[in-house]
Amino acid sequence: MKKIMILAGGNDQAALIKELKHHFNGDVETILLDMLSNVKAKPFADRFMQISTMDRDAVLKAAQEENIDYILTACGDQPLSTMAYVSAKMGLPCYLSEDDVRDLTNKIYMKRKMIENGIPTSKFHVIQNLDDYVNLDEFEWPLIVKPVDSNGSKGVKKVKRREDFRVLLKEAMSYSLSKKAIVEEFKAGEELSVDVYVEGSTAKILMVTTSKKIQENKDSFTILQSEYPPRIPYSETRIHEIVQKIVNAFELHDTPLLVQMITNGDDYNVVEFSARMGGGSKYHIIEVLTGVNIMGVYVDMVMGKRPSVSPEKKWNNALMCYVYCTPGIFSELSGFDEMCKEGLMHSYFTYKMPDSEIIKSTTSSDRVAGFLVVGNSQDDVENKLKRINDAVKVLDQNGRDIMRHDFFINS
Q1: Distance (Å, rounded) from C-alpha 403 to C-alpha 327?
Q2: Which of 12, 116, 260, 361 has its CA 20 to 30 A from that of 252?
Q3: What is the tens place of the pLDDT at every residue in 305-348?
């Protein structure tokens, strides 16, 4: 029986555990690690240890004591470093080396390597400490400040005024594990999310979506919806050229790949990328829209197989919508099952545990739930979304609806 350690305890890791049990026909023991005791994936694992996935030495100690065969994660950047570190120390199979993870998750190394290899990206500068000021006159405003190594949109802010720069820079650095940040020029345009599987050393595009942001968060980049296909004109040929250039420059092979880029007419600029599946239930969206079970492909790949993917178009249009709330204590979702039964909602996911405190709606970790709407036209999907938004609720402990329904009106 194989013994596999799983890092992080969200919905995506629950899906990974299910896929591992299927792969091994149940003949596997899964040990889940997370810094929190009450997490979504916990009921699916055979055992649980309350250890931070970022405490590499504590994870290594636990892995050695358990004599594990593999250590894995899915759909998140920061645990990749621990996965590669423990695998290297114990001589375990791993599809990424520590250097690979550094280049793919640390924005300093990533940006430098992109520029060295002619991959289009914005001008940037590394800031090591608050007194290490770059000459801001070298840049076209507005600017973006971001941590060099953090998950999701935490600490990523647009800077419009010079007087705000230091405050937002300090915030970005606070989210960085290494306490460093980068400043880069803001690129206007639409953000595309490109989901890829690298088969051998060949990039195969699975899906291209538009990332729609919460409009009231003017200076941050909180994703509200992933829309398929993008409404804007774009060149899949040009996107594929850029993605393949990334694969070649970073010497990637047999791996999922998520690439985020900004497009504005014929101008394409890569924001960042990582050798993983996207979070926020992207593995599920990919399977529904293309027929590719990317989580199953991932498990086959890390277990030494050479899977092949052949994406097909299953639906003409889709929206993955993320649910945010006003401050309160999350208790339960209402109306979601009914929407699925009526065929208006394809599926949904709950990201918060009951009794979780909701404080804000500014980062992806603030999401309470997510739901997928599919259809054969843009109007079909938008009409379904309107009916869903009128019917569903997110209830607090007093039965009050705290869902931000307004986000989906004229979204």
Answers
A1: 10
A2: 12
A3: 999 999 999 999 999 999 999 999 999 999 999 999 999 999 99
Quick one: CA dihedral 205, 208, 214, 215, positive or negative?
positive
Nearest-CA neighbor of 251 among 280, 275, 217? 275
List the beta strands (DSSP E) in 279-346.
Answer: 317-323, 328-334
Residue reference for tokens 């595309």: 192
Q: Which of 168, 176, 196 lies closest to 270 in space, CA to CA?
A: 196
Cα end-to-end span (Å), the chain: 49
Tell me phi and psi for residue 359, to 5 degrees. -110, -40
Does the CA dihedral 176-227-124-109 come out positive or negative?
positive
| pTM for this predicted structure | 0.91
Please name the residue that has the structure tokens 């999350």: 330
Strand partners, 223: 213
Contacts of 274 (CB under 8 A, 6+ apart): 77, 80, 104, 105, 257, 258
Q: Residue with structure tokens 């599920």?
A: 284
